[in-house]
UniProtKB/TrEMBL annotation:
<comment type="pathway">
    <text>Pyrimidine metabolism; UMP biosynthesis via salvage pathway; UMP from uracil: step 1/1.</text>
</comment>
<dbReference type="InterPro" id="IPR005765">
    <property type="entry name" value="UPRT"/>
</dbReference>
<keyword id="KW-0547">Nucleotide-binding</keyword>
<comment type="function">
    <text>Catalyzes the conversion of uracil and 5-phospho-alpha-D-ribose 1-diphosphate (PRPP) to UMP and diphosphate.</text>
</comment>
<dbReference type="GO" id="GO:0004845">
    <property type="term" value="F:uracil phosphoribosyltransferase activity"/>
</dbReference>
<dbReference type="GO" id="GO:0006223">
    <property type="term" value="P:uracil salvage"/>
</dbReference>
<dbReference type="InterPro" id="IPR000836">
    <property type="entry name" value="PRTase_dom"/>
</dbReference>
<keyword id="KW-0342">GTP-binding</keyword>
<dbReference type="GO" id="GO:0005525">
    <property type="term" value="F:GTP binding"/>
</dbReference>
<dbReference type="GO" id="GO:0000287">
    <property type="term" value="F:magnesium ion binding"/>
</dbReference>
<comment type="similarity">
    <text>Belongs to the UPRTase family.</text>
</comment>
<feature type="domain" description="Phosphoribosyltransferase">
    <location>
        <begin position="7"/>
        <end position="206"/>
    </location>
</feature>
<feature type="binding site">
    <location>
        <begin position="129"/>
        <end position="137"/>
    </location>
    <ligand>
        <name>5-phospho-alpha-D-ribose 1-diphosphate</name>
    </ligand>
</feature>
<dbReference type="GO" id="GO:0044206">
    <property type="term" value="P:UMP salvage"/>
</dbReference>
<dbReference type="InterPro" id="IPR029057">
    <property type="entry name" value="PRTase-like"/>
</dbReference>
<feature type="binding site">
    <location>
        <position position="102"/>
    </location>
    <ligand>
        <name>5-phospho-alpha-D-ribose 1-diphosphate</name>
    </ligand>
</feature>
<keyword id="KW-0808">Transferase</keyword>
Length: 207
């Protein structure tokens, strides 16, 4: 599995804001959007291009344009907090929603909703979820997408636990993972330490 961890100062600065328990919902959402915008440049570096001819005011130039459909798949709910930043830079992307929540006692993922674009199998798919804890939700999502025929999968997270990365690697070593920080460990409740708490609650002001 190809893993890319970001050490960029702007990303680390915004990550510090996300981790702070005193950061309110508005600033949390804004910082999540900003951090995603900074990560997406690297996470999309392999997008396919095709050559076209473009008439400039001076001459005909050979230019390059995107030649690959992109589908963003946020894992509900928290993954939604990363979608707007992605659509800002890839406005032609489609969005497929996958509803999976983690059972509070067993920590296993539970499916409740999916709506994918019809061309998802031919797309490069970028899964978004700020938190990769046990990896169960992301593994479920990758399994789901592969069953639909998707071949090219990238995962974008903000914080990941080493345990979850290992679990994904064992099942899906063919994907790419872009993560702002690989944290220390999971606690007894399978929350990431130090982490940032419950990402969905912090984005949507619930709890
Ligand atoms: C959180 C998070 C991930 C999942 C990570 O979602 O956004 O989807 O837990 O845990 P895992 O790696 O152990 O599966 P949650 O289930 O709390 O749902 P929510 O986004 O609706 O709050
Ligand atoms: N889900 C979260 O939102 N945070 C964690 O630390 C673990 C799972």
């Amino acid at each position: 599995m190809q893993i890319f961890e970001f050490n960029h100062p702007l990303i680390q600065h915004k990550l510090s804001i996300l981790r702070n328990e005193n950061t309110d919902t508005k600033l949390f959402r804004e910082s999540l959007t900003e951090i995603t915008s900074l990560m997406i440049y690297e996470a999309t570096k392999d997008l396919k291009l095709k050559l076209i001819e473009t008439k400039t005011p001076i001459t005909i130039a050979k230019t390059k344009v995107l030649d690959e459909p992109v589908t963003i798949v946020p894992i509900l709910r928290a993954g939604l907090g990363m979608v707007d930043a992605m659509l800002d830079v890839i406005p032609t992307a489609k969005v497929g929603h996958l509803g999976v929540y983690r059972d509070e006692k067993t920590f296993k993922p539970h499916y409740y909703y999916a709506k994918m674009p019809t061309n998802v199998a031919e797309s490069k798919v970028i899964i978004t979820d700020p938190m990769l804890a046990t990896g169960g939700s992301i593994i479920y999502t990758i399994d789901y997408l592969k069953k639909l025929g998707v071949k090219n999968i990238t995962v974008m997270c903000i914080i990941a636990a080493p345990e979850g990365i290992k679990n994904i690697e064992e099942k899906h070593s063919d994907i790419s993972l872009y993560v702002a920080s690989i944290d220390e460990k999971l606690n007894d409740h399978k929350y990431i330490v130090p982490g940032l708490g419950d990402a969905g609650d912090r984005i949507f002001g619930t709890k």
